[in-house]
């Protein structure tokens, strides 16, 4: 009897693995994505690593490109400043996006899809155009402080990347847990910190990563909205690549930034146990 039960299950697993669509294995549909990933991700990474560890004049292996970074206190200060601005932008985006996500997920709210799309639509416009639009608005409001302008521009550009993961998590939250908290006498504030926020942690971490990482490496926003005092780490990398003889140092700086981003992702995975939420509109 046991063999009769186990055998159909094994056969069903084999059938699923070998399933074909119009005579083509399902795994074959991943080949275009794999090819694009190799061409536009893996190959550029190898080129960056090659330039980072080689000399621009003789092409030999060297660590001078990394020594150049650690021997420049002003560049270390720019990196620290970029991290602080990215952290501030992430915190502001979260403080703005979380109440909006809660409001959009309310059962009393109709036409949620339309309201969410109002926040998503600006993402379909070129980010440079959006940045220039912010510059005009700040000019009309007579806001001339460079750091305020850059921070406002970053919050505006990256706000949807925080909102979508939060909305996806909050809208799919088990409402019975919230109702149980309220039935047990917990106040709305206590329910928020004891129930809603812990359940929202995958979306919070995902949104924080999607805002923090591009903010650290951006340079267009600070170029348009700031001045020489608001140079970010991305601006320095861009300057080295703009110089025909600075590709090696620029690649070393990019490699260090890549390591920083990888460490950030690793810490985020440890916090959430590997569970993050990408977010969705529907």
Would you write up a description of this structure?
This protein is an all-alpha fold and 282 residues long. The protein is built from 13 helices and two strands, in the order H-E-E-H-H-H-H-H-H-H-H-H-H-H-H. A two-stranded antiparallel sheet has the order 1-2. Strand 1 (20-21) and strand 2 form a beta hairpin. Helix 6 (127-140) packs across helix 7 (146-171), helix 7 runs antiparallel to helix 10 (201-217) and helix 10 (201-217) packs antiparallel against helix 13 (247-272). It is globular and about 70 Å long. Residues 5-17 have low confidence and may be disordered.
Kindly estimate the percentage of residues that lie in beta strands according to DSSP: under 5%
Helix content: over 70%
Task: Spell out the helices and strands N to C.
Answer: HEEHHHHHHHHHHHH
Kindly state the mean pLDDT as a whole number? Answer: 83
As residue ranges, the low-confidence spans are 5-17
User: What is the CA-CA span between the terminal residues?
Assistant: 46 Å
Largest sheet: 2 strands, antiparallel
Number of strands: 2
The DSSP helix count reads: 13
Shape: globular
The assigned structural class equals mainly alpha
Rg estimate, integer Å? 24 Å
How are the strands ordered across the major sheet? 1-2
């Amino acid at each position: 009897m046991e063999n009769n039960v186990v055998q159909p299950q094994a056969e069903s697993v084999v059938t699923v693995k070998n399933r074909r669509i119009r005579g083509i294995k399902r795994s074959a549909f991943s080949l275009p994505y794999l090819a694009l990933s190799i061409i536009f991700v893996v190959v550029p990474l190898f080129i960056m690593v090659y330039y980072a560890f080689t000399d621009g004049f003789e092409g030999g292996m060297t660590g001078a490109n990394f020594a150049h970074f650690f021997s420049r206190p002003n560049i270390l200060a720019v990196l620290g400043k970029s991290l602080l601005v990215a952290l501030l932008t992430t915190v502001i985006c979260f403080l703005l996006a979380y109440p909006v996500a809660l409001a959009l997920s309310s059962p009393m709210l109709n036409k949620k899809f339309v309201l969410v799309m109002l926040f998503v639509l600006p993402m379909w416009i070129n980010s440079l155009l959006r940045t220039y639009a912010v510059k005009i608005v700040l000019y009309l409001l007579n806001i001339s402080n460079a750091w305020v302008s850059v921070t406002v521009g970053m919050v505006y550009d990256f706000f949807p990347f925080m909102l979508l993961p939060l909305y996806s998590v909050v809208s799919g939250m088990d409402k019975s847990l919230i109702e149980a908290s309220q039935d047990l006498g917990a106040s709305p504030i206590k329910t928020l910190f004891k129930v809603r926020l812990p359940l929202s942690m995958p979306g919070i971490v995902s949104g924080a990563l999607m805002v923090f990482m591009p903010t650290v490496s951006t340079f267009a926003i600070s170029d348009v909205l700031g001045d020489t005092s608001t140079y970010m780490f991305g601006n320095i990398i861009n300057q080295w690549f703009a110089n025909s003889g600075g590709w090696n140092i620029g690649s070393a700086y990019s490699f260090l930034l890549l390591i920083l981003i990888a460490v950030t992702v690793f810490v985020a995975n440890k916090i959430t146990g590997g569970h993050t939420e990408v977010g969705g509109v529907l």
